[in-house]
């Protein structure tokens, strides 16, 4: 018998087993609510509502600069933690306070809440901003890149600007 006649069933067996997965009992899990994806117009409106200098941020440059961060961080609502925590909802969150993420002791015991100013200093040089943290990223030395990343994150991570007080 030719060798390929013996190999083909061995290769097909795992594929057939995988194809059978999901068949049988119906799922009892509830599908996740659909996540609203901002339109370009909604992004522009949110960007314009940010305080200076972030309202002048370049979202496309922020997206490109953030590409260096994607190896460790996700930003979508419900996204997984990776080497770094998911950043959805980071603005206004106490440092080291994302449930189920294993922060360094330095971050767990840090006594601040993430805002644009803190994130700007963090992004400039995470090692000197909070010695003892486990982030290995060397930082973004360019102030315009930091501004743009912060604007990008505010637009993409569920940030809600505070409503202006009624006059």
UniProtKB/TrEMBL annotation:
It comes from the Bacteria. Pfam families: Cytochrom_C. Residues 1-19 form the signal peptide. SUPFAM superfamilies: Cytochrome c (SSF46626). The keyword Chaperone does not apply. Keywords: Electron transport, Heme, Iron, Metal-binding, Signal, Transport. GO terms for molecular function: electron transfer activity; heme binding; metal ion binding. Residues 57-157 form the Cytochrome c domain. PANTHER family: CYTOCHROME C. This is Cytochrome c family protein. It comes from Brevundimonas vesicularis.
């Amino acid at each position: 018998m030719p060798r390929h006649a013996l190999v083909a069933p061995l290769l097909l067996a795992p594929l057939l087993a995988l194809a059978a997965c999901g068949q049988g009992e119906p799922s009892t899990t509830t599908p996740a609510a659909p996540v609203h994806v901002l339109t370009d117009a909604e992004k522009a409106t949110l960007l314009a509502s940010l305080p200076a200098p972030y309202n002048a941020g370049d979202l496309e440059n922020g997206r490109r600069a953030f590409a260096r961060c994607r190896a460790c961080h996700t930003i979508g609502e419900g996204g997984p933690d990776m080497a770094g925590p998911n950043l959805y909802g980071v603005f206004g969150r106490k440092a080291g306070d994302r449930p189920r993420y294993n922060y360094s002791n330095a971050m767990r015991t840090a006594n601040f809440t993430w805002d644009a100013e803190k994130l700007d200093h963090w992004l400039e040089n995470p090692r000197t901003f909070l010695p003892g943290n486990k982030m290995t990223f060397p930082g973004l030395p360019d102030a315009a890149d930091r501004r743009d990343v912060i604007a990008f994150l505010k637009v993409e991570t569920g940030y809600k600007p505070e409503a202006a007080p009624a006059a």
